[in-house]
Every structure is written in structure tokens, then in C-alpha cells.
Amino acid sequence: MNRAEEAAAFFRSEPGFRRLFVEMKRKYESLGRVGGVVSLASFSENEREVIAAFFGRDVSRVSLPAFEQQLERTRFACVGLIELLERYFGEPLVPKKEQRQAVEKERERFFGHLAHEHPWLEDICGQRFIQAAYEANREELAAAIRLAGAALRRLPLGSYERLPLFAQRIAGDPHAFDLSTLPGKVLLSALQATVPGEWDVTSVESVNELLQSVGLLREDILNFATCANLLAETKKGPHPVFTAAVEANSALNAPLRDVLSLIRAYPANGGIVYVVENAGVFSTLLDTHAPLVCTNGQMNLATMRLLDLLAASGAKLHYSGDFDPEGLKMADRFLERYSSAAVLWRYSVDDYFAATPSVHLPAERLAKLASVASAPLQPVKEAMAKTEKAGYQEAIIGRLLRDIKS
């Protein structure tokens, strides 16, 4: 046993030194040098007695340089404090700064190696969920990145494929790219970074559009467009279900699977399609035999694809929704997406007050009005901000009916 090992064994044999050595180790790691002071205020009486015996006097605190100096007066004079602490704990002492540098160097090595294989990783590796996954399990993250990379190499697809079937083909697991999984999140972020366009991964419709842009469908049956009195065509000719629904004046829930097969859609009569937010209003207006689309709140992918076709046919899309911040925001997005084809329907200040706004809007909902940017919506936005009340589409159903019938 050399002198350093002998010193470590000596101090280890007296439990009263344990706490002091732990604190001195922390001080060194924090400062990166032999410095600083350890207070003994919270030490036990036995611990203070052992330390006092080492110094030959009572002490209320211990500086690291003083301990090292006292050590030189013992038979362990040739042993420095750093060497003693390393022998005592059985591991090298590394200052916190060097520890952080080593951690960052390893992080850079990890992501650099993977980015060499998958260049898109450089654009997303700083995202919080990826950094959290790195801290939790870097092997699992590496596997997720490589799996997402394998998927990206096969995208975009030549034709549409359902996401579970794509996942089964690529990963052997139909749920591998579910958006709640790590590979699914990585794939979505990678698509956001590599597919041209402005994609908001916090928005369901934006996520669905992003996936659809590369040929992936999350859900093509339960994702449907509610409509009435519209005609449509596929490459084979008129779509018989749309035609039959018009003849019966029936509401039609057209799944995305069918909407994606359409090459054209247009109103069965006239040049206007009335787009409403709420199903109850849609059902009431159905008796007029007017061309209708119901968004059921936020537009899903099937509804947007159908409206895209209607706008392309030259139809004017008259949009009516609720008089609340969320409703105005949906109207704002509708105007932005359909521009010259879109017409606000009953969104004046007079219409707002005709809806007898009475539901109080708390500050957090009113704050949403700030993002409503379309000029035609500013008057009603200002009126709503002033009254702090919401009104609803159902209250002006009479006005909507008169517009259609006139």
C-alpha cells in the first residue's frame, strides 16, 4: 500500500471524516481548484470532535487549503488533498466545468455522427423533445432517428398510403410512426424541416396536410367532409354517391378516401357554396336545397380537400361561423386559404349584435383575437373585444335562411 492509499484508508476508518470529505469533494468540483470553505455548523458533535482532533483545536469551518496544510504536518505529508480525495472516493476528481465540457462534447459527437447519416437532423436536434429523449435514453433516440431516416428515404410516395401500412412496411410495426411515439415525433419534425411550406405541428389539420403532401394518410375513413347538394367527378366520370345525394337532398359524410379520388367538385346549382361551422345550422339550411359544407368546427383534411376542389371549379365559398375568438380565428384562416374564392357571410358588427352576444369571454380567450389579421374581420373583432361577449351562429339562422332564399 503506497502512502496515498494508506492516507485514504486512515481517513476512511474514521466515519467522522466522511461528511467533511464529501463536502470538500463538492467544493473542488465546483471551483476546479483547492479552495473554498466548508462550514461545520450542521455537523454532528462527534464529527466536529474528530475534525478538531485532526487540527488540534476546535474549528467552526474548514478551508480546503488549511486542511491540505494540516495534512502536510502528518505522516501523510507527501500526499496532496486532490490525490487523497481521489483515493478516498476511488474515482478521479473532475471539476464541474470539465464535466460539462465532456458532456457537451459527447452530445456533439452523438448528434454529429447521426447527422452525417441523416443531414436533416441538424435542423431538428435542438428541439426540446429530442434533447429530453437524449437525456432519457440515447440508444432509443438513435434507433428512432435511424427509423425516421429509413422512412424519409422512401418519401414522397407515388400514391397515397395509410400511415399504419407504411409503418408496417418500413418498421414491421403498424404503430411505429404513431405521432405519440418517439419515431413518429422525429419523423414529423424531419418532414417539417424538409418539406417546403409553413407547417404547424401543433395543428391537427396542418399535420394531416404535411403527411398528405408526401403521400401519407393518418385516417381516411373517420376523416370526412360533411356536405350536401354538391356534384363531383373522378377520372372515371361523375361520382354516383354525390349524384344520388343531390337527387335525395341528403347530407353526405364523404370520407377522405373518397375525396382524394375526386378530380373535380362543384355546386349542383348556382355558383355559391355555403360553408357553415355548426352541424345544427347545416341541418336547418339543408331544407333549402342549397349547396352546403359543414366544417364541424376546425376544418379537417377531407373538408379542406373538398373545398380546394370547389374553389378550383370557380365556386364562391360563403363562410359563416360563431362570434367568438375561436370562430373569428377560423374565419381568418378560411380567408387566408381561399383568398379570392372566400366571402365572409354574415360577419358584420350588425350581425354580431343580432346574435345577442351574452356569453362572457375571459381574458385568455380574448387574447386570441390578437392573431386575427384579416381586414374584413377587424370591425367585429374590435366590437367583441369591447363587449367581451360571444354570440353564436344559431342565433342568426333566420338571416342565413333569408340570404339563401333571396
Automatic annotation (TrEMBL):
InterPro entries, A to Z: CHP02679, CHP02679_N, DUF2399, Spo11/TopoVI_A_sf
Name of protein: TIGR02679 family protein
Signal peptide stretch: none
All residue ranges annotated as the Conserved hypothetical protein CHP02679 N terminus domain in the record: 35-231
Pfam families reported in the protein's UniProt record: DUF2399 (PF09664), DUF3323 (PF11796)
Domain (DUF2399): residue spans on this chain: 255-404
